[in-house]
Design goal:
The complex is a heterodimer of chains A (218) and B (243). Chain A has one domain. Helices cover 83% and strands 0% of the residues of chain A. Chain A starts with a helix and ends with a helix. Chain B has six helices and no strands. Chain B is globular, with a radius of gyration of 20 Å. The relative contact order of chain B is 0.17. In chain B, helix 2 packs across helix 6, helix 3 runs antiparallel to helix 4 and helix 4 runs antiparallel to helix 5. Chain B has one domain: Four Helix Bundle (Hemerythrin (Met), subunit A) (Up-down Bundle), CATH 1.20.120. Chain B starts with 9 loop residues before the first helix and ends with a helix. Classes of the chains: A mainly alpha (218), B mainly alpha (243). At the A-B interface, helix 8 and helix 9 of A face helix 4 and helix 5 of B.
Amino acid sequence: MIALLIRDLKLALRAGGGFGLGLAFFLIVTVLVPFAVGPETGLLARIAPGILWLGALLACLLSLDRIFALDWEDGTLDLMATAPLPMEAIVTLKALAHWLTTGLPLVLAAPLFGLLMSLPGEGYLWLVLSLAIGTPALSVLGTFGAALTVGLKRGGLLLSLLVLPLYVPTLIFGAEVARRGAQGLAVEAPLLLLAGITCGSIALLPFASAAVLRVNLR
Amino acid sequence: MASIWEYANPRKFIRTTDVVLPWVTAAAVLCLVGGLIWGFFFTPEDYRQGSTVKIIYLHVPSALMAINGWLMMLAASLIWIVRRHHVSALAARAAAPVGATMTLIALITGAIWGQPMWGTWWAWDPRLTSFLILFLFYLGYMALWAAIENDDTAADLTSVLCLVGSVFALLSRYAVNFWNQGLHQGATLSMDKQENIADIFWYPLLVCMAGFILLFLALVLLRTRTEIRARRMRALLARERLG
């Protein structure tokens, strides 16, 4: 299991793995927003939590089709399926690797981008916390979407159509935590609900992902 | 004792629906024409909303079937996963466009009603938003069906998507409540409330709802029959090419 995780991480880190692409995309989105809505500090501060969450979500989405695509093309996925490791574990590890290479850098870089968006001072902690709690759910949901579309020629667009509606609850609660945090309001309720969604997704979705992956490998 | 699973046999299904479908269609037409004419021309105008209230005879039944259409797909998907009856998978596939259309009708009639009443075509109200999300789920479901070539694979994948999607559609339904307080009025038809819709609007509405349910049923049966026949035709063509 560990070996598989390390392999995925190495593949992502080395050239062509696309590590950092998500981060660069996040940066571009953050830079483009002030051009679109104007550089007014008050306005930027008000929309900053939502924009940062949306940027993180899109950056996550962008890298989803890489989760299984390469392993599918060269047949590694078939080998993994015949390995003694259960499919659920493979799927969970893939999601974990995706989170470590996409979600975690986003979480760590978020304060910097918050600075660009003139996020109010009390918002940083809650932004980082909400992203740290919420992005694992995005990775797990995205793995499910990637498993659904793995065999398709042009699965990318379909993947976003399938995954984006699934992201709605996570986005609502995550952005709500960040928004309330930035305005100095109580954040417990959305934070707990966000954590609930993440825990529920991590606990249950690998079974669904493994089931569809088995169908696709049939 | 005949079991319900007998109808999972496509031949039996076709033969039964041969008999049932004309009746269901006739009943749907009768209920819809009767209910809509009753509702549009023989009910008084609401003292506050004027004649716009009458759009309720399209809006409420289509919203009802938008949600129940998804539930029917969920049930059919479960049957496919558990018992692997092909008719069930095809019925789920057949129901999706009908349900999506119902969702669209509910959204559009709601917008037409909302413009004079709320002064806006669209508001990010929880109910409106969750219907839009439901519509997106329908779109994703249909797109996945269309994208996969192998029928059995497509049936398996869409069933799982339907299960997961149901959970998240439900989650979204309550999450949007949290996110914005609503403009939409509460339920007018709950069983346990004193203040419901007045009887004079209620009876034609009931007929319209029955009409929409029958219409949904008729369309799904028709589309399922079409799917079964299309598949049989493909099988025959393949056999001919081989032989």
